[in-house]
Specification:
heterodimer, A: 262 residues, mainly alpha, 11 helices, B: 262 residues, alpha/beta, Rossmann fold, four-stranded antiparallel β-sheet, 10 strands
């Protein structure tokens, strides 16, 4: 691994962000709209049932952590897609940059974007609804780490599919995200899902992470057993995604798909 | 420092796309500092060969040693001494020229790229382009900047896929001068594909003509023309192209009748 090459990848994506105002939307506009949407829904529910787990703090905490997952996913998936959109993938593939260095560069840059997004979310939840997730304390950090691992894993799956099926598969960057939002119990416990879906939800590491979040918000200590189960599932998902993306990258090279982008 | 040894050693290189044989048991050796033109009718396997030599496409069979490094295992190390320019490839459109050069210098692992980039901009006389957005460049300017980008790390081998395609004769002439200058000053080997026979005669001391993925002729332009009893390289090429059309679909490996090698 070369730090110089990783740093160059980060610089490349910083300039993309710096130059394109619309790229700031995923950091500073869409998260705020989500805060308004879910915070208002929570405020509405709170009028009748203030102690409900569908009240403002739960929905806002859910959306803040969902954006943690989303930013981690977007950073890698959109980072790789940036090279396909600008037909730069062959330029990159013919330099010494290794795949792992490229992914490391965009993942690290994604963490910077995540920090900016968290700042946006924290300010907007405080200003609009007087809710400060950081008041919960350090307990949310391990939950966020789990969601970042899952975001990276999902991104690698999507990147693999884009390499294999071409740019038409890009839609999955956004689609998979919302599928996981539905199945992971971001705003409600998994047992609120329809019977047939609960089994799927129960095995997702993200479901356990959001469950741990609700436990903490209810004033209880971190459920370490739930976190441990989520960590195990997250690592299985992550390394499975690495294997999947590596396999599809080999298919990409074997079938000459790079010529689609040149 | 002038490189020594062979910069390309490809043995029995074979690539099929479904039932179509793109490259058929190709043997190609490019000595250090040589200037070799890789010619052939459309679909002869030129670009596939180049992309295999660069590790962007995996061969089905055969071996590749690039600047003394075996692919794919040492792809990153090898590409640290190889540059790639394609007339059809854009630079990342959202970067200024200087930024793009800085980033690619980083991709090549150059630790202190600024003086190298500044020197390259001066040497190629593109100071007036340095602060322009890549998307604002003309085709000729883009090709020139691509050459600068691909030579920042003083490669032992420069691979050029149709470098002057779509350029007017004056600009194409300047691009050729730049390439010959790099070859003279740094001893860089050139491996060039082109459909412009005149260009190949100027740029290359040896031509390899591909047909149906195999070698149909290999020698100096004069030797190839003489072997096909023609006045010049273009007529020899036309003969090979005509033969290629009549034998399309038939087995036409490197040992087909009419094949000439020095």
């Amino acid at each position: 691994m070369s730090f110089v090459r990783i740093r160059a990848v980060m610089q490349r994506h910083w300039i993309v962000l710096h130059r394109a105002p619309h790229r700031w939307f995923e950091i500073s506009v869409w998260p705020v709209l989500d805060v308004l949407l879910w915070g208002s829904l929570g405020a509405f529910v709170s009028r009748d049932t203030p102690d409900s787990q569908a009240a403002t703090p739960y929905l806002l905490a859910g959306i803040v952590l969902f954006w943690t997952f989303t930013q981690a996913q977007f950073s890698i998936a959109l980072g790789v897609n940036e090279e396909t959109w600008t037909r730069n993938i062959l330029n990159v593939l013919t330099t010494p940059v290794k795949e792992i260095e490229y992914i490391a560069g965009i993942a690290l840059f994604g963490l910077l974007k995540l920090l900016l997004c968290m700042a946006t979310l924290t300010i907007s939840t405080i200003v609009f609804f007087g809710f400060d997730l950081s008041a919960v304390g350090w307990s949310v950090i391990p939950i966020m780490v789990l969601l970042v691992i899952n975001g990276w894993a999902l991104a690698l799956v999507v990147v693999g599919l884009v390499l294999r099926f071409g740019q038409s598969a890009e839609i999955l960057i956004w689609g998979f995200n919302y599928a996981l939002m539905a199945f992971s119990g971001v705003f409600f416990p998994a047992d609120a899902l329809p019977d047939g879906v609960q089994a799927l939800a129960s095995i997702l590491p993200t479901t356990k992470a959001f469950s741990a979040l609700r436990t903490v918000l209810a004033g209880n200590p971190l459920p370490w057993d739930t976190l441990a189960a989520s960590l195990a599932g997250s690592l299985v998902f992550f390394f499975g995604a690495v294997a999947f993306a590596t396999w599809l990258l080999s298919v990409f090279r074997r079938r000459g798909f790079v010529t689609r982008y040149s | 420092m002038a490189p020594s040894g062979d910069v390309v050693v490809a043995r029995s290189l074979t690539k099929r796309f479904r039932d179509q044989v793109a490259v058929d048991r190709l043997d190609l050796v490019v000595p250090a500092g040589a200037r070799v033109g890789l010619l052939g009718p459309n679909g002869a396997g030129k670009t596939t060969t180049l992309l295999m030599l660069l590790g962007a496409i995996s061969p089905d069979a055969g071996t590749i040693d690039l600047v003394g490094e075996r692919l794919p295992r040492h792809r990153s190390r090898a590409l640290g001494r190889v540059g790639f320019v394609a007339g059809y490839l854009p630079l990342p459109e959202n970067l200024e020229v200087r930024e793009a050069l800085m980033i690619f210098a980083g991709f090549y692992g150059l630790r202190r790229p600024k003086p190298i980039v500044d020197a390259a901009i001066e040497r190629f006389g593109i100071e007036h382009l340095a602060d322009q957005q890549s998307r604002e460049l003309s085709s000729g300017q883009r090709t020139l900047v691509s050459i600068v980008k691909s030579t920042l790390h003083e490669p032992a081998l420069l691979v050029l896929d149709e470098p002057t395609a779509s350029l007017d004769p004056a600009v194409a002439g300047r691009v050729r001068e730049a390439l010959l200058g790099i070859h003279r000053e740094q001893g860089t080997a050139l491996l060039v594909t082109s459909h412009n026979m005149r260009e190949v005669e100027i740029l290359c001391e040896r031509v390899v003509i591909l047909s149906h993925g195999g070698i149909a002729a290999d020698g100096t332009a004069e030797e190839v023309a003489a072997a096909f009893d023609t006045d010049d390289l273009e007529d020899a090429f036309l003969q090979i192209a005509a033969r290629s059309r009549t034998t399309a679909g038939a087995e036409d490996g490197p040992a087909a009748p009419g094949v000439w090698r020095p």
